[in-house]
Amino acid sequence: MQIKKVAIIGGGTAGWLAANHLGAELSHNSLLEITVIESQDVPSIGVGEGTVPYIMNSLKRFGISEAEFLVKCDATFKQGIKFVNWLDTNIHGDNHYYHPFDVPYPKGFNVTSYMLTKGLRFDSVGIQADLCELGLSPKHKSNGDYEGVVSYAYHFNALKFAELLSNNAKRRFGIKHLIATIKSATKDEFGNVSSLVTRDNEELQFDFYVDCSGFSSIVIDKTLQTPFVSKSEELIVDTALVQQVDLAANEEIRPYTTATAHSAGWIWDIPLTNRRGTGFVYSSKYMSEQEAKTQYAKYLKIPESDFNPRKIPMEVGYREFFWNKNCVALGLAQGFVEPLEATSILLTDFSAELLCRNFPRTIEDIPTLQEDFNRATRYAWDRTVDFIKLHYCISDRQDSGFWEENRDVRTWSKELTQKLQKFKLRPPIQSDFFSRFELFDDKNFQYVLYGMQYSTDLPNMNNIEFEKCEQILGENPVHLDNAKRNLMLHRQWLDGLNKAMARLER
């Protein structure tokens, strides 16, 4: 049977990302109708406000201009993540390192051995950490869409981003939009989903279903009863408190995300043009809600008596099958991992793109396509969990059982254990990350490993390699001086764009 009608259950970032991916890939098929069904009664979680550079490929593919995106979504540039106090402050004092987005191979040359031999801060391999500290934009005014002096991604208002994606999908790809609250679904005699049932008991029939209904997981869980694979023994945080904080009109905007560790987790701090999105992530096994609220209020400099953050329980893990029968789950319906390293939107974007490249023409095509999709997506999830675990398990913090449990190798995956044993002998190399479905590779691992002072045996270097590294890294002061002269402050750049766009609209 040919697939002619597709339902995407749920809007938000996940639903409208899926709609744009499917629309961009399949809009040539005039017989295919794609409908996003969105409830007005289901609030967005709205904490996924950080990205990695991967998102640029999607925005360009959807035909969305960068200027429009930046202005309409209160967006700012993100040049990486500043990790604060992920090491023991009694040993290292107040400490931080950057995980910037620029590749740590200047001019394509691997300088890792030189950096370790000389005992240099690994984030000084390029100038991006300095640009972050100076609060500079990654772009000149003259740079075109999605072009900059250094690599970058974005912070944005998740609700406004979903609205931008919605308008683009409907206008550019003819995606239909239905406002309805789905309460359940029905199955046929073969176990496939046959219809959706609204709160008003209306039955809506489609051929294929994309479940973006968030934690409700109306189809993939409640209807198809797809098992959930918990990763709570590896990643032991299970709760987040979230709070938005206004920015003053003239307050500088940091061009990076801040991730500050505490005794039982960490705090995210994401700057937009008009506010900061913040969240206090913790393990309820090692910290009470009251203690978390007290520490969070102190971090935000808000009187605790006036502080009432939103609480989000976090069940870390994913579906055993992401594609089950004629349904694919995306976003929070697919799984959840804490937003360290902007994993949520990345996994959603990756999975939606993979689906559109493997979309079945008929129901009979599904068994052929779904096995590879499930295998690739599970691999991406497992390796992402490993990368998040890396941040915890190599920390030398001693201030609670939380960090001790994370260092217990019994909470590590076999693959992560093998990698870390190997990285004691030599630095990570590309062949350690052989699959293109590893969303974090040797470059990401190097920034985290050596930002946290992981001990690797010093490799041998010949004189030619040593001199080449000295020459390349010796150019950094010149590059930094040029950047200081030619790059604008982050807020100044964004304010200039907003004024220019306002003039165009008049």
UniProtKB/TrEMBL annotation:
One of its GO terms (molecular function) is monooxygenase activity. Signal peptide: none annotated. L-tryptophan binds at residue 341. The active site is at 78. FAD binds at residues 11-14, 332, 345. Keywords: FAD, Flavoprotein, Nucleotide-binding. This is Tryptophan 7-halogenase. It comes from Pseudoalteromonas xiamenensis.
